[in-house]
Specification:
Protein name: Aldo/keto reductase
Keywords: NADP, Oxidoreductase
Shape: globular
Pfam family, one: Aldo_ket_red
Largest sheet: 8 strands, parallel
Helix content: 25-40%
Number of helices: 10
InterPro entries: AKR, AKR5G, Aldo/ket_reductase_CS, NAD(P)_OxRdtase_dom_sf, NADP_OxRdtase_dom
Family: Belongs to the aldo/keto reductase family.
CATH architecture: Alpha-Beta Barrel
Number of domains: 1
Oligomer: single chain
Order of helices and strands: EEEHEHEHEHEHEHEHHEHH
CATH superfamily: NADP-dependent oxidoreductase domain
């Protein structure tokens, strides 16, 4: 059982990745600084950003402030960023990585992901990630929004298989087949938008389960993720929500409640379809 915010899953290359992180999707730089600093101060050890979020500078400042406030070292933090679609291809990905590193003010990244599986472009980027990984500039490499056929296509001639696949995942889009495939290949599944951008907070089933455990709907959903072995990066700009999202270690959902939540699946996305998304 996962016991606290510092607990980790071990990726297939031996790198330890926290089960819970802070997501900062499209959060403005000033708000990002506060959110990241508050998260680290309150025990978070993983921060997830991306070039297209346009807040890597804010993340970097927030990290420095947070590390100072928490009295911990950079090595205790797990930082993720992603290469955007416009920068796919070998050389452009190398350039994009260096740009992200500069904006973040870091010497290395713990995880770097290909943001979307743009057809015909992601294999070149993967070669770039393999190069950066071998050079020690990234501790782990992975992908985002890859479906089974994308992963199969990538791994046909990849030298190193992805360590992480970050996808949209929540009770309305449980991605069970993809999860099973990733487990089979020792690829850690990670959920973005685990709360479905707030669209599940008034769901009666989840509210009833929350009442039973004296927990919020958000806490119930995040607990469901963890019990399914899925890494989560809930987004919030409010410190009390950041704390609430992490207060999920003092209860465990029953098998029946897990099944109830599983039955909410409708294969419904709030984000783009990975098979039909370019820019």
């Amino acid at each position: 059982m996962i016991k606290n915010l510092q607990d980790t899953t071990t990726l297939h290359n031996g790198v330890k990745m926290p089960w819970i992180g802070l997501g900062v999707f499209k959060v403005p730089n000033d708000d990002t600084i506060h959110s990241v600093s508050a998260a680290i101060k309150n025990g978070y050890r993983s921060i997830d950003t991306a070039a297209v979020y346009e807040n890597e500078e804010g993340v970097g400042t927030g990290i420095r402030e947070g590390l100072k406030a928490a009295g911990i070292s950079r090595e205790e933090l797990f930082v993720t960023s992603k290469v955007w679609n416009a920068d796919l291809g070998y050389e452009k990905t190398l350039e994009a990585f260096n740009t992200s590193l500069t904006k973040l003010g870091l010497d290395y990244l713990d995880l770097y992901l290909i943001h979307w599986p743009v057809e015909g472009k992601y294999k070149g980027s993967w070669k770039a990630l393999e190069t950066l990984y071998k050079e020690g500039k990234i501790k782990a490499i992975g992908v985002s929004n890859f479906q089974i056929h994308h992963l199969q296509n990538l791994m046909e001639n990849a030298e190193i298989k992805p360590m992480v696949n970050q996808v949209e995942l929540h009770p309305r889009l449980s991605q069970k087949e993809l999860h099973a495939f990733c487990k089979q290949h020792h690829i850690q599944l990670e959920a973005w938008s685990p709360l479905m951008q707030g669209q599940l907070l008034d769901n009666s089933t989840l509210q009833e389960i929350g009442t039973k455990y004296k927990k919020s709907v958000a806490q119930v959903i995040l607990r469901w993720d963890l019990q399914n072995g899925i890494v989560i990066i809930p987004k919030s700009t409010k410190e009390h929500r950041i704390i609430e999202n992490s207060t999920i270690f003092d209860f465990e959902l029953s098998a029946d409640d897990m099944k109830q939540i599983d039955r909410l699946n409708e294969n419904h996305r709030v984000g783009p379809d990975p098979d039909n998304f370019d820019f």
